[in-house]
């Protein structure tokens, strides 16, 4: 007698939505438990601060894949052994199950992303931070990194968009650029993460002494000659700093994958 449930369909459904294949074979409670396990695990990883680095992101992806794969294999086996009615459970059960998980996912990745997960990912379309961060890199940021510090690479909001630059100074600091070298509170920090061939032109070589205002940071791009940073757009309010870039989790250049920043 041919099975009335398709193993491949059960497998693919669970790969697409956690536990959905188990619902397909009329193991609704099993499906709910699998989904709960996955979301609770994701939240716990986020609350522990384990997702906001490239390695942590790999762990997260590995965990999600493992849960889905295990439930998919189980659903496929149960489908092969299934002997119940074909139209159980009803379509509305499938719609409700998938709909609830879609809503939970959207809320988790939008409203609750910062407090529960503490990370975000971005694609880099410009070369203002090259070669540290280059066009085609996919970066991960820590949304709970605390106040920005000198040397941090941060994500910030400006004119309705988000971009990345390096913090050159925080509130109260005095900055100056002489011959392309950054003078921070009287201390010469050299080219400050920029390469010599990217420090050219009057805007890169000279900056009159300036004091960072309270509640603000002064940002510079590592690609100093091709960066729209605080030299042109002014200082950035700390409240507009979204997070700290912790590394590159994917890139067109495979040698850059997994690069981390202090």
Description:
Helices cover 36% and strands 24% of the residues. The protein is α+β, with helices and mostly antiparallel strands and 262 residues long. The chain folds into two domains: 7-114; 119-256, Umud Fragment, subunit A, CATH 2.10.109. The strands form two sheets. A seven-stranded antiparallel beta sheet has the order 1-2-11-3-4-9-10. The longest helix has 28 residues, at 54-81. The termini are far apart. The model has no long low-confidence stretch (mean pLDDT 95).
List the topology elements:
Layout: H1 7-16, H2 20-24, H3 28-47, H4 54-81, H5 91-109, H6 113-117, E1 119-123, E2 137-142, E3 153-158, E4 161-170, E5 174-178, E6 181-184, E7 187-188, H7 202-205, E8 206-211, E9 216-220, H8 230-233, E10 236-237, E11 241-251
Antiparallel strand pairs: 1-2, 2-11, 3-4, 3-11, 4-9, 5-6, 5-8, 6-7, 9-10
Helix pairs in contact: 1-4, 3-4
Pfam families: Peptidase_S26
GO molecular function, one term: signal peptidase activity
Membrane topology: Multi-pass membrane protein
Short description:
One of its GO terms (molecular function) is serine-type endopeptidase activity. The chain is of the alpha+beta class and 262 residues long.
